Every structure is written in C-alpha cells, then in structure tokens.
Amino acid sequence: TCSDSRVDPNLVTQSQPGDLFICRNAGNIVPPHNQTTGGMTASIEYAVAVLGVRDIVICGHTDCGAMRGVMELDDLKTLPHVREWLGHCRSAVEVVKAQGHELNESQLNRLTEENVLQQLQHLKTHPVVAAKLASGEVRLHAWMYDIEKGSVGCSDGNCRDFEPLVSYYHAD
Model's pTM, two decimal places? Predict the structure, then answer.
C-alpha cells in the first residue's frame, strides 16, 4: 500500500499486528522485475518464497499525493529520486490518456485505480510470484481504499471496475 499515514492496513482489514506482511511506499508501486536488487523486490521475494504469503494486495487510495505528483512530473525536477520512482506509474498515465481523459484533479481517482491495476501487472513479472501464480499458490488482489468513506473497492485486475469489498468477496 501507499505510505500515506491515512491508510492503515490493519484497520482496513481488521487484522492484528503480525497478521500481515506489509510493504509501503509512495504510490504503492511495485517496480517491474529486473536484475537490480531493491527493497520492494527483495520484500516480495521473501514474503512469497519464505513466508508463504498466499494473497497479495495492491491497495491504492483516494486523494493520493503520489498520483498528483504523477500528473505533474515536470514539477518534481528538484526531487529526482521521487520523479524516477513515480516513473513506474507511466503505464497508468498512458492508459488513462488512451481512454480519452486528461490528467487533472477530476481524473485523480481514475488514475489511482489504473495505477493499482498496472502495479499488479508489474508484480506478475517477479519470478517467484509468476511461479506461484502458475501453480495456484498465490492470488492477486487490487484494492482502492476510499479515505473519506472508509470503504474498499476491489478488482481481480482483469477488469477496470472496482466493486465493493463485501460483494466482491461474498462468493469466496
């Protein structure tokens, strides 16, 4: 999930400390797998291969400052590392534009949802995740947390629609 302090994974899931393996960063970004070791890649590998994590959730949220930054990357020239990090969201930007939307405040939540979906795609490029997906040992989940309402919308990543958590998991 995002590093935004308004998003507390334990409160959202009604779980206890120690129940979840949580990775947080600006924009809930999962860089595509490559040969460069990074904290997110190492955390994913450890969680899936060693801890046996079976469900991986990418959780975005409304009013996301990182997604505002993505819409205005040129304004981040004095923050080169932040700008480079947010570059991992470029595919979300391109999808939203291809759908005929301009990048502005009215599209912030749409961009955030698309970013969650794109980060799920990045996650699939990690070898340990790909192997566990192929064997059915891992499930991926796309969540969008509405800070104001305290609600969660969910998608399996195969469609762009997010439905309420209760109805999404009701069939499980």
Answer: 0.93
